[in-house]
Design a protein that fits this description.
The protein is built from no helices and 20 strands. With 232 residues, it is mainly beta. The protein has a domain of 114 residues: Neuraminidase (6 Propeller), CATH 2.120.10.30. The protein has a four-stranded antiparallel sheet, with no helix packed on it.
Length: 232
């Protein structure tokens, strides 16, 4: 389900009613008027868009493949997404109204986000511990860091000046959110992580002025064991 609320958490309301399929990865358009998200009404994942105030949703993709993790370009003209339509995960983009899509990065590229200045597309690779970038206009990819913990592929965020990412390596005693300065490439620890961030999902965001950083973490996990009398 996709919900919206005010910045303080008040006036929460439900936007989507998919009646079962996993729905999520919602992203605001730069002008705050639309929300793009993924859902699986036919089994595979497709992209949908709807007005932020509510109303009917509109499909953007209808491939037999999976299209997930959408994000808007900074000028609001494009939507980046991850897809396995070529047999391996890649990053593609299409116009905000849908239509023909083009490949941006291949060979396992996943979870893309455009830089604040609109010049670069940043992405990771599913299962890998690296973050890369490639020019929006096309060109050679560039490795930004190899420190991102692999299972935390969604725990990174961009500001205009820094790349933030999670490192959680118990064996080496490294548990921190780090910041890579995009101008100098200097790396600093922002804070120590006390608990494991949520794995295998997107979960980090940073304010434009870097005054706040939000991330999701796993506080508790467990299971319940039941005893059934007279089971046959």
């Amino acid at each position: 389900m996709v919900w919206v609320a005010r910045g303080d958490g008040s006036e929460a309301r439900r936007l989507t009613r998919m009646n079962g399929p996993i729905t999520g990865s919602a992203r605001w358009s730069p002008d705050g008027q639309r929300i793009v998200f993924e859902s699986r009404p036919a089994g595979n994942a497709d992209l949908f868009v709807m007005e932020a105030r509510g109303g009917a949703m509109r499909p953007l993709t209808s491939e037999r493949s999976n299209e997930v993790l959408p994000s808007y370009s900074r000028d609001g003209r494009w939507i980046y997404f991850s897809t396995d339509r070529a047999g391996v995960w890649e990053v593609w983009r299409m116009g905000v109204e849908g239509g023909e899509a083009v490949r941006v990065a291949g060979a396992g590229a996943f979870a893309a986000m455009e830089s604040v200045d609109g010049k670069w597309v940043y992405y990771t690779r599913q299962g890998g511990g690296r973050i890369w970038r490639v020019p929006v206009a096309g060109g050679a990819e560039e490795l930004m860091t190899d420190e991102l913990t692999g299972r935390l592929w969604g725990q990174w965020a961009l500001s205009g000046k820094g790349l933030f990412y999670a490192v959680f390596d118990m064996a080496r005693g490294r548990r921190a959110i780090r910041r890579l300065d995009l101008a100098t490439r200097a790396v600093t620890d922002v804070m120590e992580l006390k608990k494991l961030p949520v794995q295998y999902d997107s979960g980090m965001s940073v304010a434009a002025d870097e005054s706040w950083l939000a991330w999701s973490q796993l506080d508790t996990a467990g299971s319940i064991v039941y005893v059934v009398d007279g089971f046959r």
